[in-house]
Design a protein that fits this description.
Order of helices and strands: EEHEEHHHEEEEHHHH
Number of domains: 2
Strand content: 5-15%
Strand order of the largest sheet: 1-2-4-3
CATH class of the largest domain: Alpha Beta
Radius of gyration: 19 Å
């Protein structure tokens, strides 16, 4: 954190997990969204207009500081505000002139399954077969053709700030990419609408969806596809958590997250029979 007499900034040195070639997209997107009025941290340019530098041999950028804190136990109103801001972001990004493929969507899942399958049953009995079945289902049923654009793709509660009960900003755009807009909604239903005991909270889901639809109404096709999109979102985070769990690096500063949470979420979505179970009214 850098504090000056005028403002506070975050000096960000990028880790190896961030491809330097993607940084112009990430930083350009943040700058674009701020100029469109979104509540987002923005890169700060030098006198020559450059936002990307090299510091200690690593790519670096100065990012504006957002006031607020993430919430550990989001309520319905937090979900409602998240839905609104996510939709605003989707609309604001529509005319951004750069793009980035989602490496963690359907085409990328096969590699992760192949890398994890050998030890999956060491984590949970029957997990290898679950991965195989789910990958096959999603490949055959993925709802291509829905509205696409730039999505955040990682809008977990720790990436959303609130201050005095009001949403103050979205952060961490380093998974942002081009994909199905409603897939971003599905990621948030997974991340915000399950309780600690694994139960799905439809009230939170209804408020999240209500907030989103007030800014960008979902089409009937998007609503019909929501159960599959939620399965895909749960599968994506199950795979990345499983990979990290099986490939832990001793002494790493990042805490590895238990994939069991997303096994439970995936099983919930597999049992869903209708979009109405998420609070959607077709």
């Amino acid at each position: 954190i850098l504090q000056t007499t005028k403002a506070t900034y975050i000096l960000t040195l990028y880790e190896k997990r961030v491809n330097p070639d993607d940084l112009p997209f990430f930083l350009g997107l943040m700058d674009h969204l701020v100029k469109k009025g979104c509540n987002t941290a923005a890169p700060v340019a030098d006198r020559k207009g450059n936002v990307l530098k090299v510091l200690c041999g690593r790519p670096a950028a100065l990012i504006s500081f957002l006031n607020g804190l993430s919430v550990s136990r989001p309520g319905p109103d937090h979900c409602y505000q998240l839905g609104q801001e996510m939709a605003r972001m989707h609309l604001a990004a529509a005319d951004f002139n750069l793009g980035r493929e989602n490496a963690l969507s359907v085409a990328g899942w096969q590699d992760l399954v192949s890398q994890c399958a050998g030890h999956a049953d060491d984590v949970a009995a029957g997990l290898k077969e679950l991965l195989r079945e789910e990958l096959s289902f999603l490949k055959e049923n993925w709802p291509y053709g829905l509205p696409e654009g730039i999505i955040h793709a990682d809008l977990f509660p720790d990436n959303v700030f609130f201050m005095d009960g009001a949403l103050s900003g979205l952060i961490d755009y380093y998974f942002a990419c081009n994909d199905i807009l409603a897939y971003d909604v599905a990621i948030c239903l997974n991340a915000w609408c399950f309780e600690g005991d694994g139960a799905f909270n439809m009230t939170k889901a209804m408020w999240l969806l209500k907030g989103y639809a007030e800014v960008r109404p979902l089409s009937k096709d998007e609503m019909v596809a929501m159960p599959i999109l939620c399965r895909g979102a749960a599968f994506r985070f199950l795979l990345s958590r499983l990979y990290d769990w099986l490939n832990q690096v001793e002494g790493a500063l990042v805490q590895v997250k238990d994939p069991a949470e997303y096994i439970c979420k995936l099983k919930f979505h597999r049992a869903v029979k209708s979009p109405s179970e998420y609070g959607l009214d077709l």
